Amino acid sequence: MERARVRAIGVPFALVLLLALAARSVTSFEVPEALVGGAFGGSERETATIGGQDRESLESDAETFADELGQNPDDRQPSSVHRPGLTPPYRPPAAQHPDVETVDDGRQPPPFDTSSLFQHHFNSFFNTPLETGFFGTAGLPGFGFFDTNANRPWWKGENVCVEREEKEEDITSSDNDEVSVNGGTASGGSSFGFHGFSTFNLNVQSCAEKQHKYVCTSIKNVNGRKRTEKLTRQCCHGYGRPRNGPPNAHCQKLDLYSMEETVERLGAKEFVSTLKKSGLDATLENDVTLFVVPDSAYTTFAEQMWENNLVAFDPMARAKRAIDFASMTARDMILAHTVNGTYFIEDISNEQLLKTDLPGANIRINIYPRGPMAATVRDQSHAEHPYRYTANCAPLLKLNRVADRGIVHVVDRVLVPARNTLMDIIEVRDDMTLMRTFLEMTGLDKMLREQGDDKHYTIFAPNDDAFLKLDKDIRRKLKAGNGCAMNILKNHILDITFCSLAAVNGVKTSTYNMLNEKLEFEYAMVGKTRVPSSVEGELSEVEDEGKKTQRIRINGFATIEESDVVASNGVLHMIDSVLPTDSGMPISNTLGNHNLTVFKQLISDAGLEEEFDGMSNRTFFIPTDQAFEQTETGRYWIRQLKEHPESLRGNAALKEFLEYHVAEPLIKTCGLEETTIPTKAGQNVRVNLYTTNPVFTTVMNRATVNCARLVRFDEETCGSVVHEIDKVLDVPKTNLMEALSANPDYSMFQRMVSLTNLTELLTSPDSGLTLLVPKNDVFLEVDSWYQETLQNQDELERIIRAHVLPNVICCTGIVPSEWPFVRTTETISGHQLKLNRNRRPQVQNAGITKCDVVARNGIIHEINDVINVQPKRTSSTGAGSGNPFESFGSITRPLTFWFK
Q: What are the recorded Gene Ontology BP terms (predicted)?
C-alpha cells in the first residue's frame, strides 16, 4: 500500500535537489550489512571501493593523468590507471610505506567487486573532479552512501598546500583583445550586451595534473590589463601520494627518513661515506637534490681513478680521461652531484641545466620515451614513469625519493663534470685530429664552442681511421672546407642532446640532423670488438666471432664505438665510419649514384669534372640517359662519346652545352616560379608551371625548364641541387622572327607576319610568347583564301594575332580537357582558344604536329590547320568571351605549387 502511494505521488527532480541540500547537515546513513552482503557483495563491507580500489580510480585518464609534457593522454604508455575487465584492479599492499619499492608476488588479485559501480558513475557525473562542477565547487550533496568526502579529488583533500603566483601587464596590441565574463568591457573598448546583463570578457583557464602537483593557470582580461594567475596545489612537506596507488589517492603521512638514512637505504653508503670524509655533512641538513651513485658503480669509479694515477697506465687512455677527471677530488665529485633546492623529476624540462655546487659544472637532464614492452615484462618503473630520464647522459635508476629535507635521485654511474665544450673535447683527443681540422676549416668549430641554456648539440665524430677510409678526392674537398665539407660534417651533428639511452633495443629510433636528414639508430651484434693486443695497454680491433657484442649502429652503416662523452654544450659519440650523404657528395658522385651516366661522361671527357665538382649554390638540370637517346642533339653527343671521345676535351660547343644545364642560384621545387634563370653559359632558361587538375586550375603540380619536364627533383649534392629532366636543353641561337625565317617550311606564315606590325613583337628579347605556326602545306590547300587575306590588312592582322599567345604554353602543359572543365588560353587579341589533348595536343581546331621549338624569347608549336576564331565580341570576359566555364579553363599565373 505504501509503495503504491509513492508511485502515485511521484517526486519532482527539483524536490530531490532540495532534499539533497538538506542532507548535507545530516549524517550519512549506514547501509545494512544484509544489503551489502546479499546479491551485491560478500560478507565484508566494501561499499567505498571497487575490488579494493578507490572509486576515483575510475576517473578518465584525461582528468586524472594530464601529462606534464603535453603528450596526448591516449598516446601514453599504460600506467597505474586500472580499467575493469582489462587489467587487474588495484589492491594496496598491507602496511606498505608509500616510498617503498613493490615487488609482484604473483598472487592472484581478488575478484572484481561491482557493489559500488553505480555509485561511482552517478557521483562522478554530479561531482566532477574539475575545479567547478555542474552544481558548483561542492558538487551534489551526499545522499549518505555517495560518500562525497572520499570522492573528492586529491588536490581538494587534506594535507594539501597551495601556492599562488600572479602577474599583471598592460595589453597594448589589438591582437590581444579578449572578452570578459565578469563585467567590464573588452580591451578594444567595445561592449557586448546580453539580455540586459552587463558586458562580459572571456577568461582562459587550463589545468594539468602531475603525480604530486595540480597546477591551474588562468588568464583574464580586466579593463585592458592582462592578469595571469597560477595556482599550484601539492602535498605539504611530510606528506605524499603513493606512487603505485589509485589515481585519486590522497596525500598521506610519510614516515620520512633523514637524508643520510634515505641515501643508505637506496644502496649508496659509499657516497655518504665520501660526503662525510669531505667535510660536507652540512649538505645533509639542507634542502638539496642529490644525484647519488650505487655502491657498485662508485667502486668502479674509484678503481678507475686509482688506475688513472698509475705511471704504467696507457698514456693515450690517460689523455682521454684527463679532460673528464683533471684535478677532480672526492669533494669535487660530491659537489658535482649536489643541487640546491628540491627538484622532482616531473618538474624538470628536457635539456634543462641544473646548477651544481661545483663551480662551472651543471647537470643536464634529458627525457626520452620508453620503447614498446610486452605486458608480461613491463616492470614497475615503466608503470610509474612513461619516460626515461638521464643526468649528463647517465640513466636515472630511482626517482623522487623524498627525505625529511630534500630529495634523492639514483644514477647508474658517477656524473662527469661537464665543464668543457664539445670542441674542447675534440681538441685533446689524439684520435680525432682530422675531425678537428675539418671543423676548423669549415668554421663549425665556433658553433661547437658556444655555451648557454639553449646550446645543446650531439656530434657523432668519426675517428681518424674513419676519415682515412674515404676517397682521396672527398678528403681533399673536406680539407678545402668547401660546401661539400660543410654538409658532410653537418650530417653528423644534431641540435639536440641524444644520449645512448635514447636508442631502444629491439626497435629503430630516429631523429633528424642539421641537414634535416633522417638518422636511424638500432642495436646490432657487431663481430669486431676492441680487446687488448699483445702490446701492453694498446687497444686494437680484431675479428672475434665468438665475442660479438651489441652496439648502436647509425643508418645501418656506422657503429658507435665510444658513447656519451658529455660536454657543457652537449654530448659526443665516436663512430667508426663517416656517414654518407648525397648532400655532401660532389656533382660527379651524385650523377653516378642516380645513373645519369651520359652527362657524367660528357663532363669527364670534356675535362670539366673538377670545375663542376667545385660549384656551389647552383641548380643542375640534368637530362636522363633516355632523354639523350630521344632527341637529335642528345644522339649527336652520344655518337661523339662512342666515336670521337678525344675530340671532346676542350670542345667549346660541348662546354657551352653542359654549362647551359647549370643555373644559378640554388632553387628547389618549393621555390620555383614562372621566370627566367641565368645559366653558367650566359643565356637564360625559362621555367614554367602548369596544372593537371581539372578543377583547381591555379594549383601548379608540373614544372618545365625550356619545355623539358622535371621528372625527378630536389636531389641534393654538395652545396647544390639536381633536377632530372626528360629532354636535353639546346642553347637557343635565334629569336622567334629569326626562327621563322630560318625554316623554309614556315615561309608563307613568315610573309603574313612581315605584312603586319607584329615583327617588332616577335623580335623583342623579353616577350615570352607562344607562336602557333601552320606549315606551308596548310596554306597551299587554301591558296585562294591565303591570297585574299594578304590583300586585306585588317583580316590579316586578326589571323596572325590569333596565332600568338602572350605566355609560354609548352606541350606538357596541355592536358585532356573535357566539358565542363574546359581549358582555354587567351591570344594577344583577347580571343579564347580551347586547349585539349587526345592523340596529340590541340589548340582550338588545330593539332600540334611539332612541339616546343625553343627560341630566345619564346617557343614555336607547328600546327596542321589555321586557327579559326570569330571576330572578337564586345567583352573578352564572362559570357561575352564565348566561354561559359572560364573559371575552370584559363591558364593563369600560379598561386600554389607542388609536385606529384
A: cell adhesion; extracellular matrix organization
